[in-house]
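Reviewers of the previous submission asked for a worked example of the structure-prediction workflow described in the proposal, so we include one complete record here. The input consisted solely of the amino acid sequence. No template or homolog information was supplied to the procedure at any stage.
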Amino acid sequence: MTRLARIVFLFLLLPLGLFSQSQPKPDLSSPFGALNTHLFYLQPDSYKPDLAARPIQGVKDAAEAQSLAIKLKQVFDGKGLHVKLEEVPDEPDFIDSTSGKNQYVPFPNELPEVYLQKVGDNWYYSVYTLEQIPSLHKKVYPFGSDLLINLIPKYGQHRFMGLALWQYAGFLLLLLITWIVHFFLSRLLRPVVNRLSRSRIYPATVPEKLVFSIARITSIWALILAWKWIVPLLHLPIEWVGFIMSSIRIGATVLFMVLGLRILEIVILYFRKYTLRTSSPMDNQLVPILKVIMQLLIITVAVIQILNLLDVNVTALIAGVSIGGLALALAAQDTVKNLIGSVMIFFDRPFQIGDWIIGDTFEGKVVEVGFRTTRIQNLDSSIVAVPNGNLANISVQNLGVRVFRLLDVKLGIKYDTPPQKIEWFLEGLKKLVHTHPFTNKELFHVRLFDMADFSLQVLYRVAIKTDNYDEELRIREELLLGAIRLAAALGIEFAFPTSTIHVESFPGQLPGTVNKGPQNREEMEAALEGMIREFEQRVQKPIPPDDAL
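From that input alone, the workflow returned the following structure tokens.
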């Protein structure tokens, strides 16, 4: 043979050599070899079920081993699980870090029951895995659909862009059936959702548009979940199945999130109706805040689930977010403090909307309680926003919860007032309290209280039955004017800081008592009765009901 003939002969044999090198020999010495042997010899271009069944051990005959190998491959394909051979360990003595045994689980999250074990010097699918293959296959291909996928691909239909024509037709038919079922199912679910969301107390609270939206979302969500059982029937390539299955899981999670948000709207509608029946105006402010918190919670859970489906390391992500959140919290301590203060105000409820409160640097009526600040309207009708963190750390006097209003004054009378006149003055003040229609007849104190530097102190403390500020001022005015007129009628003078020079008078006579007011009991009683009658005519008005307190 000439040199040229030898070169031509070797060139013709080169493709055969490459082909023979591309065909791996059955190898069970490692997890990589066992999985590669199983999956490679079930590909269309290298279909040899007898070699693919090499990792199957401990069955009755070769036909059953081949059947189990084919079914397990179909389970992988139906679930869209792609074995990444480059990540499979090629170590003959590989030890699983979780169990500490010579075993390997290809899909620990999706198929924990499928794993390989080392027996002797080779790796095989475990006995437990072989027992689970039939049930797993039934779950992926229910109702005998495995017979269909075994028959249809054998007809040898023409293929276009990697798929057979029957697969395109089946996909279009699936879309058509899905739309038809959704059309009827959404209308069948509408009265069910309407009945579940309707209340006998508030029958017209939930709008029909919201009810129909929930029915449609529920219908789409149920049909998308049904696609998990139907897509394997199309016998699509594993890359397509993996993409479709991931899209189904993500789509179902998004729809579940939207469904949760719609149901939350119904809950908020009823909660808002309930707050209208409560006496606390603070409940109305709690509704939007509670709605935002619940929406953020639902969306956060959905996002974490989607990231988990995308094989994102959620634990590491949460740890990173936590560190970033800690840094953000340190940089925005005041904002975090105000948010915590808002929560404390809503739960502790030191005041309500409309209450008049007094703090260290503010005084006014509570208008609104928000996430960060509480708005207070001052006396001049201006609005001041007080950070909730400050409100939670200071003493706040709430005048809006008072059961009654209080007149609490000390009347200073001169030291030269005779004791008898003081007693008549105290008795007259008590009669003023009993006579006035808007005073609490059981909760008052009229006593000679103290001997101060320049006066005798008379305690005049009266509970006023009103919850109106202008009415309180009017009653205080009437009681104080009554005390002034009573003192004038009895000839009693109020004291104020002065310097007085006393001149010795007649023996036995107190200074300043000559010709001042009534001089005996009869004159005193007459003056007192006249003054009380005059006071009664001035203040006599209808007594308010008890619930006005």
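The radius of gyration is 46 Å. We consider this example representative of the routine output the project will generate in years two and three.
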